[in-house]
Amino acid sequence: MLKNLEIPSMITEKKLKDLYKEMWTIRYFDEKVDQFFAKGMIHGTTHLCVGQEASASGSIAVIGGKDKIVSTHRGHGHCISKEGDINKMMAELFGRETGYCKGKGGSMHIADVEKGNLGANGIVGGGIPLAVGAALTSKMKNENYVVLCFFGDGATNEGSFHESLNLAAIWNLPVIFICENNQYGMSGSVKEMTKIEHIATRSEGYGIPGKIVDGLDMFEIMNTVHEAVEHARGGNGPTLIEMKTYRWKGHSKSDAKKYRTREEENEWRAKDGIKRFKDALIDAEVLTEEEAKQLQEEAKTSIEEAVEFAANSPEPSIERLEEDVFA
Amino acid sequence: MTTREITYLEAVREAMSQEMRENEDVFILGEDIGVYGGAFGVTRGMIEEFGPERVRNTPISEAAIAGAAVGSALTGMRPILELQFSDFITIAMDQIVNQAAKTRYMFGGKGKVPMVLRTPAGSGTGAAAQHSQSLEAWMAHIPGLKVVQPSTAYDAKGLLKAAMDDDNPVIFYEHKLLYKTSSNVPEESYKIELGKADIKREGTDVTIVATAIMVHKALEAAEVLEKDGISAEVIDPRTIVPLDKETIIESVKKTGKLIVVHEAVKRGGIGGEIVGVIAESEAFDYLDAPIIRLGGKEVPIPYNPNLEKAAIPQVPDIIAAVKKTVRK
In this prediction, does ipTM exceed 0.90? Predict the structure, then answer.
């Protein structure tokens, strides 16, 4: 078993199967949300990570329960991978009392502090300094946890990115900066908005390692993040990892995607990270076609159940409006 | 309690040091707070006592250090962030306004951000437009932040203790010109509850609500007015969020007249809020004269000392306002 698979030692055969199902859970979750928005069944806005499942699942697969993540506005995948409860997530999108944020946060503010998910974030680059702070706690309290800090290509042009990477570098903090380069910051192509080919090369400016990863290759992701995590746990400080990926859907709802071609979209869709993971697992005899199909079905069913839970949950009472401002 | 006279600056440092001796989770971070001792010398000697892990000298990166404070607070530390000048909050604004203030509410009541942002505010040092502002009303406008403005060494120590004990982000404004002022301060640690105004001087003819350095100008004005037979009550709210409305309302009911004075620009300043509180309260019916608000002129703080002084309320302005209101 696990023949021909070079993977970190903590990744068991069962974990590989779980990851496969988890990737489908993420995809079905966001496709369901997409449908609901299209039908006007939920309001506000949301940012979908369909196509980007591997960078969430593969990265979070190699950290432990006490490790933490800081997510982004495109954060449903990160939350699910960090043991998120899809019932509470869906209920939050429905704005219900049973949601992660009691209906007060919505898609961009889902957090699960107890599970180490320090939250999605509505501000591009806003979470990066928070991750540095969480890593500082780990160091000062000798808690030995690491922080995975996710952000997109767009965030790397924010001042907070620069300040945070420098600060984490000089303090040798246990944080791994993961840039999910999905090629676009809303409509701004990374080619148009930066003059460098690889964002990871910016690591040189901070004196930390930089890695470029195929963001649709689960194995490369797991191995690279694992190495960075070990580096950080050893007190050697942060790493910047750039994962080349692609969001299949638009930036948020009502995006006509005029800034990119259908050909380009199809090229990236053909590189589907879930399919590649499945093929590799079948090759390695971890999965059979039937098992794969069953896991995919289970994922789909779990989303239907989450919708059921959300739809049957109560709306928050108006009396709760002014609660939770202060601790 | 044994007291002795120490400066406002020493009181702030003593509050921090005593807390850091008691609580391992409390640490301070900021620019030049190490061997330099901070731009105004508030942290002088602290790195020698607590070491560079707990007195963390940072690069000039206001967004990152503010965010590091928020992130560490969210994960179990109790940071004190020193921002070198309160004007620099502009560069840390996202982390304070969009992150620190909103985290708990956005998360549906989960997580807490127990941090204190200490920062010197105000004019009078000749540092001109980008190093002299009083921006506390901005912070007071944001749900999720508490805002403190001590005017004496005694208040500074007790209010800072309360701010450090609070489980929420607290913006703690220290007035630069007050750093060298002294008062009797207990040696041991003590707490002044946030949201409790202090009647700095009792009076019967007029209520003067003043903040930060204006408390001292109001007290000076009250001395002069007393010689003219006018008894002024001077109230120092001490914290503008939460605001002790009751003490102000009770005073206005007693005197029937109100002057509000702060250094910050009058337009959009916290004085408007205080006046609004009175206008909406039962004290409105007790008013015998129109309320007067005194605040900074609508200009950036200028460099020339005469211009700088003229840009904010001075003792004669307060006296004139009281006389206009009282008309004895």
Answer: yes
